[in-house]
Predict the 3D structure of the following.
Amino acid sequence: MYSDKVMDHFTNPRNVGEIPDADAVGQVGNPSCGDIMKIYLKIKEDKIVDIKFQTFGCGAAIATSSMVTEMAKNKTLDEALKITNKAVAEELDGLPPQKMHCSNLAADALHAAIENYRKKQKGE
Ligand code: FES
């Protein structure tokens, strides 16, 4: 039911954990199941130089979280903002239809972290 890529990222997730001195943190909850994803960013000259995640959720949510961190690493903030939930699911060679909602966390948490960083930069 799951692609090899989903299974790989679920059983061997990349970039798991917390960045204690993160420049930005983004957190989103999935309204359909209550699962939560948190993304930590380290940013240098508008580029994501380190990224980690903590996901309290199902296997598909963990796989999409892992994949989004791989896709966003070393990207500029503008490039990372262009990563969509759909792109993450596609990069994993798809998710079963009943698990598509799980991919909603990944890019949303990344975007929330970037917005959080930009607000901080503006002193808001
Ligand atoms: Fe909640 Fe998958 S069941 S994110």
About this structure: The first strand starts at residue 24 and ends at 29. The pocket of FE2/S2 (inorganic) cluster is lined by residues 30, 33, 35, 57-58, 60-61, 102, 105 (CB under 6 Å). Residues 104-121 form the longest helix (18 residues).
